[in-house]
Design brief:
about 80 residues; alpha+beta; 3-stranded antiparallel sheet; 5 strands
């Protein structure tokens, strides 16, 4: 799997949960890190590897605001990639 960008919670998900909506025309994507942030992406009925690639691309391309710093001795708000 391609490298995933950090979630706004500050963690990098180990995997993505992909749920089909409208019989696969759209997918809901959520990381396994916090369960708080998800995105919806048009999938156009793709299956298999193409569906996974669509989810990874959508996750990595989704705009993010400030992300909570994951350094234990720091409380700053930074933009992590």
């Amino acid at each position: 799997m391609s490298k995933l960008r950090k979630c706004p919670c500050g963690e990098t998900p180990g995997e993505l949960h992909i749920n089909d909506t409208l019989s696969g025309k759209w997918i809901d994507i959520m990381g396994d890190c916090c369960g708080e942030w998800s995105i919806e992406e048009r999938n156009n009925y793709a299956t298999g590897d193409e569906r996974i690639e669509n989810a990874i691309r959508a996750w990595n391309d989704a705009p993010r605001g400030d992300i909570k710093c994951s350094h234990p001795d720091c409380n700053c708000a930074i933009k992590c990639n």
